[in-house]
Amino acid sequence: MLTVKVKHELLRNAKQLYYHQHPICVKGETIAFQSAISYQEEQVTFLVFLLIAIIVGNLIVLVAVVISHRKTRMTFFILHLAIAVI
Questions:
Q1: Full pLDDT tens readout for the chain, 86 residues
Q2: For residue 55, what is the enclosing H or E element?
Q3: Which of 20, 42, 60, 66 is within CB 3.0–4.6 Å of 36 for a Cys-Cys bond?
Q4: 12 and 46 share a domain?
């Protein structure tokens, strides 16, 4: 049978799991908790990397279109598409 202390710990566990926290170990009737690792830093790092890759890729397209001497509707369209994305 669960004691009141364990019931409160289980309720706290459920609340912390809801708020992205997880238990790390169970010792007897008490449960130790650790805050969940925040993925915000990793997400920002990935988005910055993605932004840099997009800008570099579109700059390469701009340089390639400007260097090429073909002036067609398609190169004009690609040029403006690359400019719009940047």
A1: 556 676 667 677 766 665 555 455 555 554 554 444 567 788 889 999 999 999 999 999 999 998 988 889 998 999 899 999 88
A2: helix 40-67
A3: 20
A4: no
